[in-house]
Design brief:
This protein is an alpha+beta fold. The protein has 3 domains: 125 residues, PAS domain (Beta-Lactamase, 2-Layer Sandwich); 93 residues, Beta-Lactamase; 149 residues, 2-Layer Sandwich (Alpha-Beta Plaits). Helices cover 49% and strands 24% of the residues. It has a 7-stranded mixed beta sheet, with helices on both faces. α1 packs antiparallel against α8 and α11 packs across α12. The longest helix has 62 residues.
Length: 505
């Protein structure tokens, strides 16, 4: 038609490219957003499942402690003959001694089948009847039936507010039977949850630092764990939580999932893990804004990126394409070379597991010290004794955990030092003697040794590990033979961190 302008081939191609870029940007943004959200939820779910496992282990360890206690001769003797003064004295002494090895204990006791206390960690409560037949017959019958139903297992009431101390505890009972299989009494244990709460709170969560935990009993919908202590043992007012309680009440298999809710005008994401052994639903909550912060940032980035790309298409679509291809190829080559260099450096000089320098790096640094005329240095060695036994008994994964944990503790105690992993189970720390005194370096070494040899909370429970440590000071002629000297000192290790000065003259 007259007056109609034809679109040039160049403009047509430019328009097509522009449309393609817009569509691709939208699709990529949507895909990345969806994937990032999914990853954020999966990350929180993994964390919640791990915390649920910690809680389960905490309670199961308490149950094992009570079970071992119930099997003791002193317990069966006093329940068989409660009036025997000798049995009473031995049972009380055994109870007090046994309870000393239980962390966070509220009370450990022995009771007759009618709930009369005949031995207790607190001797003042001996003789009390917690559920008299005349006033609490129903509660007595419920307790007895529950213990009988548990058989030789433990009847775990769960987390409750102790009527004696007003603090939250894990309360449990176990029936004791005579030779004919008839119940003759029971044992009871109360463990404070403070240590469990502190353990959970001490485990930082990257990216969701403002998250909080809560836990409900699905059988009654009441909180058994909450940051707000006033909500404990009260019914959760969140309708989603109550629906989950109805869904999982009586369920015997572990389950997990997530839901979102609104509180005080703020949107929250809640990730839950169901612990079927006790009917508890553990939840990890955080604001939607923080959980999906990376998603929002990526979305903005992709929008900006799309705008920039579209602008470049409009401005530079047909300018020097061949040169652009060459530049792209060159940029790609540089990136690959840089990545290769980084990979080679890491492989040659870094210990991948612990992220500290390796033996090669140690040798090079020592040679460099000698070349540059470095002044006196302290060399400290720590060795994990019987490390092969740790791997064989606890597994290689826990052996790796111990190596990483060792480096963490060494870094905490040797602030201005360089740490090397010079062997599978040994670490050497170099510290400038001009900046640190002998007393300081020995304090750091002893503090690290004390922490390392104390009881550690590993992924498979609490364990104690053995270490050897020694410190030497060398003033000149630095070489790797200092490692040999340190190893000889460790061979004569007697439980104390030894110190020796080389090059005394």
């Amino acid at each position: 038609m007259k007056g109609t302008k034809r679109i040039s081939t160049l403009n047509l191609i430019l328009i097509i490219q522009l449309v393609i870029m817009i569509v691709l940007s939208v699709v990529i943004t949507a895909t990345i957003t969806r994937t990032t959200k999914k990853n954020a939820i999966e990350h929180m779910q993994t964390i919640t499942d791990e915390r649920a496992h910690i809680i389960l282990n905490y309670v199961e360890n308490a149950e094992k402690t009570l079970t071992y206690y119930s099997k003791a001769e002193q317990v069966t003797n006093i329940l068989s003959d409660p009036g025997n003064p000798e049995y009473v004295a031995k049972a009380q002494a055994f109870t007090e001694d046994y309870s000393k090895n239980i962390d966070n204990i509220e009370g450990l006791w022995i009771g007759t089948w009618e709930t009369k206390c005949i031995a207790h960690t607190n001797p003042n409560t001996v003789g009390m009847v917690t559920r008299p037949k005349d006033t609490k017959a129903k509660e007595l019958k419920e307790l007895q039936d529950a213990m009988l139903e548990a058989g030789d297992g433990v009847y775990n009431i769960g987390m409750i507010i102790s009527p004696a101390t007003g603090k939250q505890i894990v309360s449990m009972y176990k029936a004791v039977y005579d030779e004919n299989g008839s119940p003759i009494g029971f044992v009871g244990l109360g463990i404070y949850t403070d240590q469990l709460v502190n353990t959970l709170n001490s485990l930082s969560i990257k990216g969701i630092e403002n998250s909080s935990y809560s836990m409900v009993n699905v059988n009654n919908g009441n909180y058994v764990f909450n940051d707000d202590a006033e909500l404990i043992d009260k019914k959760a007012d969140n309708s989603d939580i109550q629906e989950l309680c109805k869904k999982y009440a009586g369920t015997k298999s572990a389950e997990d999932g997530d839901f979102e809710y609104k509180k005080s005008g703020e949107k929250y994401v809640s990730i839950y893990s169901y612990i079927p052994e006790y009917g508890w639903l553990l939840m990890l909550d955080d604001t939607r804004k923080e959980v999906y912060s990376l998603t929002y940032a990526l979305r903005i980035y992709m929008i900006i990126f799309a705008i920039v790309i579209i602008g470049l298409v409009l401005v530079f679509a047909f300018i020097n394409k061949k040169q652009e291809k060459v530049n792209q190829k060159l940029a790609s080559t540089i990136i690959k070379n840089n990545k290769t260099k980084e990979s080679l450096y890491t492989a040659m000089f870094k210990d991948v597991l612990t992220d500290v320098s390796n033996r090669i790096s140690f040798s090079m640094d020592v040679d460099e010290m000698k070349t540059k005329g470095v002044k006196a240095q302290y060399f400290t060695m720590f060795n994990i004794a019987e490390f092969s036994k740790v791997n064989s008994q606890l597994g290689n994964d826990n052996g790796d955990w111990l190596l990483v944990r060792t480096v963490e503790i060494l870094k905490q105690n040797f602030k201005n030092s360089k740490i090397y992993r010079t062997g599978s189970d040994e670490f050497v720390i170099i510290t400038d003697a001009a900046k640190v005194s002998k007393d300081d370096i020995m304090k750091s070494a002893n503090d690290a040794y004390s922490t390392l040899t104390s009881k550690q909370t590993t992924p498979v429970g609490k364990h104690t590990f053995k270490y050897k440590a020694a410190v030497v000071k060398k003033n000149k002629d630095f070489n790797t033979s200092v490692v040999t000297v340190l190893k000889e000192m460790l061979n004569n290790f007697t439980g104390y961190v030894n110190y020796e000065e080389l090059d005394k003259n």
